From TrEMBL:
Residues 33-52 bind DNA. It holds the Pfam family TetR_N. Residues 10-70 form the HTH tetR-type domain. One of its GO terms (molecular function) is DNA-binding transcription factor activity. It comes from the Bacteria. The keyword rRNA processing does not apply. Keywords: DNA-binding. SUPFAM superfamilies: Homeodomain-like, Tetracyclin repressor-like, C-terminal domain. InterPro entries: Homeodomain-like_sf, HTH-type_TetR-like_transc_reg, HTH_TetR, Tet_transcr_reg_TetR-rel_C_sf. This is TetR family transcriptional regulator.
């Protein structure tokens, strides 16, 4: 159901969420106190609690915003490509571009999962939901490339992406991106070669 104009987030909520998203990504989730977010967002504690029952609700909202952004971006990337193979390459190129960005700190979802390892926690569940969507979207693309099982190839792509996201914080980004993109090319090649290993 579409939101009405009156249901749009308030300016204060948007400011809190934008500020928290920037700080959470740069500095982590557990280490950032609410007082810092309030100070940088120029917002009162009463306003904060009017929009978010607690800090972890703000963390979930941060991840939901990141999820929406990535879904929209993938949809736009896919719509602009003529074939599924071109779309996979473009998605990989977007990931590589992120890794090369100043201030890159890895994957927001992997970072959150490391800080919230309990599978029952709402933050962890939000991470899992995002990753299930991403795997499903890639499986749909790989199903249109080659005639073998698509999910193993999608899982392979996700693992390549996860490794690149982690290595991009630790190693030279250009080398990490080249390795990642070469791996994706190998994965696409394997979909078109009879008898090539699955995935």
């Amino acid at each position: 159901m579409e939101r009405s104009v009156s249901a749009r987030p308030s300016e204060a909520r948007s400011r809190l969420l934008d500020t928290a998203s920037r700080i959470f990504y740069a500095d982590g989730l557990h280490t950032v106190p609410v007082d810092r977010i309030l100070a940088e967002a120029n917002t009162t504690r009463a306003t904060f609690y009017r929009h978010f029952p607690g800090k972890e609700d703000l963390v979930v909202a941060y991840l939901e915003g990141a999820d929406r952004h990535l879904r929209d971006r993938l949809g736009e990337t896919q719509a602009a490509r003529r074939s599924a193979e071109e779309a996979v390459r473009a998605i990989a190129a977007d990931i590589a571009a992120d890794i090369r960005m100043p201030g890159f700190r890895g994957c927001a979802f992997l970072n959150a999962a490391a800080e919230y390892p309990d599978p029952a926690h709402p933050v962890h569940r939000r991470v899992v939901a995002h990753r299930e969507w991403f795997l499903s979207a890639l499986s749909d693309l790989f199903a249109r490339i080659g005639d073998r099982l698509a999910e193993p190839a999608a899982r392979h792509f996700v693992m390549l992406r996860d490794g690149a996201m982690a290595a991009g914080c630790l190693s030279e980004p250009a080398a990490v991106c080249k390795t990642f993109l070469d791996g994706v090319e190998g994965l696409l090649w394997s979909r078109s070669v009879p008898g090539a290993p699955r995935g």
